[in-house]
């Protein structure tokens, strides 16, 4: 993609606050130390689409965006800060007010030329296909210079020759999960439209501090090393080429799955079970091969007492049912659903409190236990965006027509919010030779 960055700036809060540090919880430290980048695409409004001439001429006016961003950073002031370390070397948030990085760019292509607008596989060899380098639509971050060297919020407005625009928003994962990130984006977009905003984010992460001394009640298998591929070789094979695609399941196909399962279950449960089984079949794994399903669970409604409304940070836990492939692909769908249901059901206050304690490791430089890496084959990680409060990121020129995460690792899938027709879409990254068999099995919709 031919893209040129025309201007870079640092947007600071409209009002200054005294500089101070915020403690980060074990759940914050659990996250990957990088930015989660989401790209929003917008068509330029025309007169026959209800857009006025003036609004069309000022489409995605960067002055409006920067002014409203500066105001939003007063309310969400930690986002204008940087990461730092306390006296023990533990990561913390330095509320320095240094600001957010803002790029303005232009591309010689059109939105239509972005094709399927898919993310980019992380690491390994790249498999050719209709994958667009979405990473170009947000500022690049050099993480090698230390945690204090880069902004926690990075943004980029890219204008295309068709008049369309992409807005890339990157928020460091140590700062916020999806729920918190969207509360900021929704507040910023409301401010850009001149709407009254009553956001009252809560930044005290010490409410999720481990007990002293830490007293985990359970062994948390979700933080154990992931199962590796059974092989006769002493060394694991190198990663294969990866590719990314979108699978969409219609409401009729979802209902067909539920009917054949003969088991009362939620759409999320049946869809997750179907994906896990189909992928295990498509990979052609040995019957005795263990496979782990990693599911993200929001702890806000499960902790007792729950975090205050507006809690801004990470409250994401993981649950990980594990099964031998042979059992998984041969058992009734109802049994697979029950595996998932039981794994989620156990995530009550007692278990989550134990998980926070389990992560604690004062002897570690990072303050938490060493964590497993990417959830690659023979495993599957599913991130659920079905219920996140997406409002279309309307900054005054209409809602986005599309949004995407910029990158995925092999073995990772992202369940998007329901489409207007009730269908569900899954963006997934798999080894290239597995993708087509997986898609075929998905659409067969068998139990």
From TrEMBL:
Gene3D superfamilies: Chloramphenicol acetyltransferase-like domain
Keywords linked to the UniProt accession: Acyltransferase, Transferase
Keyword presence, Transferase: yes
Coiled-coil spans in chain: none
SUPFAM superfamilies, sorted: CoA-dependent acyltransferases
Pfam families: Transferase
MF annotations from Gene Ontology: acyltransferase activity, transferring groups other than amino-acyl groups
Matching InterPro entries: CAT-like_dom_sf (IPR023213), Plant_Fungal_Acyltransferase (IPR050317)
Taxonomy, superkingdom: Eukaryota
PANTHER family associated with the record: SHIKIMATE O-HYDROXYCINNAMOYLTRANSFERASE, TRICHOTHECENE 3-O-ACETYLTRANSFERASE
Family (UniProt): Belongs to the plant acyltransferase family.
Protein name: Uncharacterized protein
Protein species of origin: Linum tenue
């Amino acid at each position: 993609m031919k893209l040129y960055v025309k201007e870079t700036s640092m947007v600071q809060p409209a009002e200054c606050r005294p500089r101070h540090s915020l403690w980060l919880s074990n759940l914050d430290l659990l996250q990957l130390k990088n930015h989660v980048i989401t790209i929003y695409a917008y068509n330029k409004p025309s007169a026959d689409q209800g857009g006025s001439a003036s609004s069309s001429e000022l489409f995605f006016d960067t002055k409006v965006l920067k002014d409203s961003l500066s105001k939003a950073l007063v309310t969400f002031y930690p986002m204008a800060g940087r990461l730092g370390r306390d006296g023990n070397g533990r990561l913390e948030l330095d509320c320095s007010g240094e600001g957010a990085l803002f790029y303005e760019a232009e591309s010689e292509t059109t939105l239509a030329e972005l094709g399927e607008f898919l993310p980019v596989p992380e690491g390994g060899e790249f498999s050719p296909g209709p994958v667009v380098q979405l990473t170009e639509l947000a500022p690049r971050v050099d993480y090698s210079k230390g945690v204090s060297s880069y902004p926690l919020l990075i943004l980029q407005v890219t204008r295309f020759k068709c008049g369309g625009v992409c807005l890339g928003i990157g928020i460091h994962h140590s700062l916020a999960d999806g729920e918190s990130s969207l509360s900021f984006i929704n507040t910023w977009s409301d401010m850009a439209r001149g709407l009254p905003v009553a956001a009252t984010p809560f930044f005290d992460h010490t409410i999720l501090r481990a007990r002293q001394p830490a007293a985990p009640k359970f062994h948390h298998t979700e933080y154990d090393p992931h199962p590796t591929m059974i092989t006769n070789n002493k060394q694991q094979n190198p990663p294969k080429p990866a590719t990314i695609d979108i699978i969409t399941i219609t409401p009729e196909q979802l209902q067909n799955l539920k009917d054949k399962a003969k088991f009362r279950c939620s759409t999320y449960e049946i869809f997750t079970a179907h994906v896990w089984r189909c992928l295990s079949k498509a990979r052609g794994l040995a019957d005795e091969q263990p496979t782990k399903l990693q599911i993200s669970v929001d702890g806000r409604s499960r902790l007792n007492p729950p975090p205050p409304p507006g809690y801004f940070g990470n409250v994401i836990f993981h649950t990980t049912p594990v099964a031998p492939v042979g059992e998984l692909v041969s058992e009734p769908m109802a049994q697979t659903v029950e595996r998932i249901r039981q794994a989620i059901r156990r995530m009550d206050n007692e278990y989550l409190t134990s998980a926070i304690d389990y992560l604690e490791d004062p002897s570690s430089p990072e303050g938490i236990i060493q964590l497993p890496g990417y959830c690659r084959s023979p495993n599957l990680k599913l991130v659920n965006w079905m219920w996140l409060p997406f409002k279309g990121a309307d900054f005054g020129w209409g809602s986005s027509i599309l949004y995407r995460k910029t990158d995925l690792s092999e073995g990772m899938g992202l369940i998007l919010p329901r489409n207007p027709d009730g269908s569900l879409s899954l963006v997934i990254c798999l080894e290239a030779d597995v993708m087509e068999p997986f898609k075929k099995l998905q659409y067969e919709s068998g139990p």
